[in-house]
């Protein structure tokens, strides 16, 4: 996804217009496209671009490790780079190496190779154990339905956003027509799985009985 030069108002305006109807640059969860666009901005958009500012603050809420993990596997430049490493196989065909037995069965060499392999496995395990554990998170899209077409949807959304829980971050929202002049509120949030119960969250929303008829989970994705 390209929005031109994001260091100019024109580029930020294109980004803001796109995010008016989208929560992420691509799909329903953090991806390399979000990370690359976030890095290209360098600073938060002005309040004149409310959708871009909302998205920027949401992406900023992820840790550096989470943003790095999202950008690693999907980046085409990095994926392509993996194929440019030194070609080892053709060298094995060199006539000068015909007399070298790289896979000899000498017991001493086998023991040395096993020792080296074991040391490398231990070093890898130690390195992996020292890495900080990633916090399990989920991206959720909720459908909040009102009683009728006379329900104040802005007031209903304001009530929903008053719910504050440790590990809960509210994201973008929009009104979606359901028929007969009635709209439902579709609102996104990111939760830390160990801290936020989705059942408890939906119950808290349903407690606003003057506004809310029902709450459904429209999308649920692990991050």
Task: Give a structural overview.
This protein is an alpha+beta fold and 223 residues long. The chain is 39% helix and 20% strand. The protein is built from eight helices and four strands. It has a four-stranded antiparallel beta sheet. A hairpin with a 2-residue loop joins strand 2 (168-179) and strand 3. The radius of gyration is 26 Å and the shape is extended. The two termini are 21 Å apart.
Quick overview of this protein structure:
This protein has 223 residues and is of the alpha+beta class.
**Distance between the ends:** 21 Å
Estimate the strand proportion: 15-25%
Task: Return the structural class.
Answer: alpha+beta
Largest beta sheet: strand ordering: 2-3-1-4
Helix coverage percent of residues?
A: 25-40%
Main beta sheet: strand number and arrangement? 4 strands, antiparallel
- Give the integer mean of the pLDDT values: 82
**Helix count, per DSSP?**
8
Q: List low-pLDDT spans.
A: 72-92
Order of helices and strands: HHHHHHEHEEHE
Global geometry: extended
Q: Tally of extended strands?
A: 4
- Our Rg estimate from Cα atoms comes to 26 Å
